[in-house]
Write a structure and sequence with these properties.
With about 280 residues, the chain is of the alpha/beta class. Helix content is about 50%, strand content about 15%. The protein folds into two domains: about 5-165, 3-Layer(aba) Sandwich (Rossmann fold), CATH 3.40.50; about 170-275, N-(1-d-carboxylethyl)-l-norvaline Dehydrogenase, domain 2. Helix 7 (about 170-195) packs antiparallel against helix 8 (about 200-220) and helix 9 (about 235-255) runs antiparallel to helix 11. The longest helix has 29 residues, at about 170-195. The protein is elongated. The chain starts with 9 loop residues before the first strand and ends with a helix. Bound molecules: ligand FVH. Keywords: Oxidoreductase.
C-alpha cells in the first residue's frame, strides 16, 4: 500500500497540444512523468522540466504506475495499444482521447479482455486552461479506480466521475461539445448578419454579443430541453414570434439561418401547448 498515492508514476502517450499541456501540469505539481509520442522531437521542453522520454509505447507504459492516453482519435489509440495489449495485464490505463460512447465502451471491453484496469475520460478544457481553475475532466469506469487515480491526476484539471458505464464520460463530453458548437454557430450567424447589414462587427462582438450570451447562458442551459424553456417573463408565444422576427431579419440580410431555424418547430409546439393548457 502506497503511503502517498500522489507518488504514483505517470506515463503519457501522446504529445500533441493537449498531451503536452497535461504533462506540463503534472510536472508543475511535482509528479514523476514519462512521455512518449509517435513522432519524436516533441518532448524537449517537457524533458527540460523533468520528464523522462520513452522510446517506445511499451517502455512508456512499463515506466508508469498509470498511463494516460491522449491521442487524436479512437483509431490512433487502437493502433498504438494493439501491439502491446497482450502485455498490459494488471496495468492501469486512462484514455482521455475524444471518442464516441460506443468507442469508449468497446475500448473498455477490449482492454478488460487483457486484464487492464481502465477509465475513460473527456477533457473539459483546452490546452491553455489545463491546470487552471474551472478546467475539469470527466471520468467513467470503476469508482474505486477513479478514487485511486483522481488525486494523482488532479493537477491536470478537477476530476469528476460520471458513472460506472465507460461510455458516459464520452457521452457527456460529446453532448457538451455539441452545445458549444451550437453557440459558436449561432455567434457566427449573428456576426454574419451584422456584417451583411453594414454594422461594426468588432463593436457588436465587444459591446453586445459577448455580454448578451453571458447574461443568457444560465437560462439556455437550464431550459435546454425545448419543452421546458418556459421562462415566466418570456412566454412561448412571445418567444415564437421573436424567433420569427429574427429569422425575417436574417432573410432581409441575406444570411441563411438554418441553425436557429430548427428551433422554430419546437417553439411553436410550446406556444401551442401553452395556449391549450
Ligand atoms: N486541443 C484541444 O483544444 C482539445 C480540447 C478537448 C480535448 N481534445 C482532445 O484531445 C485529444 C488530443 O488533442 P490534441 O490537441 O493533443 O491534438 P494534436 O495536437 O493534433 O495531437 C494529436 C496527437 O495524436 C497523435 N497521433 C495521431 N495519430 C496517431 C496514430 N495513428 N498513432 C499514434 N499517435 C497518433 C499525434 O502524434 P504525432 O502526429 O505527433 O506523431 C499527437 O501526439 C484529441 O482526442 C482531442 O479531440 C483536445
Amino acid at each position: 500500500v502506497r503511503m502517498n498515492i500522489t507518488h504514483e508514476r505517470i506515463s503519457i502517450l501522446g504529445l500533441g497540444a493537449m498531451g503536452r499541456a497535461l504533462a506540463g501540469a503534472l510536472l508543475e505539481a511535482g509528479r514523476e512523468v514519462t512521455v512518449w509520442n509517435r513522432t519524436p522531437g516533441k518532448a524537449g521542453d517537457l524533458v527540460a522540466r523533468g520528464a523522462r522520454e520513452a522510446s517506445s509505447v511499451e517502455e512508456a507504459i512499463k515506466a508508469g504506475d498509470l498511463t494516460v492516453v491522449c491521442l487524436l482519435d479512437d483509431s490512433s489509440v487502437r493502433e498504438t495499444l494493439a501491439p502491446v495489449a497482450p502485455k498490459l495485464d494488471g496495468r492501469t490505463l486512462v484514455d482521455l482521447t475524444s471518442g464516441s460512447v460506443r468507442q469508449a465502451r468497446e475500448l473498455a471491453g477490449w482492454l478488460k479482455g487483457y486484464g487492464v484496469r481502465f477509465l475513460s475520460g473527456g477533457i473539459m478544457a483546452v490546452p491553455p486552461t489545463v491546470g487552471t481553475e474551472g478546467a475539469f475532466i470527466l471520468y467513467s469506469g470503476a469508482r474505486d479506480l477513479f478514487d485511486r487515480v483522481a488525486p494523482v491526476l488532479s493537477p491536470m484539471a478537477r476530476p469528476h466521475w460520471v458513472g460506472e458505464d465507460p461510455g458516459f464520460a464520452a457521452l457527456y463530453d460529446m453532448a457538451a461539445l455539441s452545445g458549444m458548437y451550437g453557440i459558436a454557430a449561432g455567434a457566427d450567424h449573428a456576426v454574419a448578419m451584422v456584417h451583411a447589414e453594414g454594422g461594426d462587427v468588432e463593436t457588436f462582438k465587444r459591446e453586445v454579443l459577448g455580454l448578451w450570451l453571458e447574461q443568457m447562458l444560465p437560462f439556455m442551459v437550464v431550459g435546454a430541453e425545448a419543452s421546458e424553456t418556459v421562462l415566466e417573463d418570456s412566454n412561448p408565444g412571445m418567444q415564437a414570434t421573436g424567433l420569427e422576427t429574427m429569422l425575417a431579419a436574417s432573410e432581409e440580410a441575406g444570411v441563411p439561418a438554418e441553425l436557429v431555424g430548427h428551433l422554430r418547430a419546437s417553439l411553436w409546439r410550446m406556444r401551442h401547448a401553452a395556449t391549450v393548457a
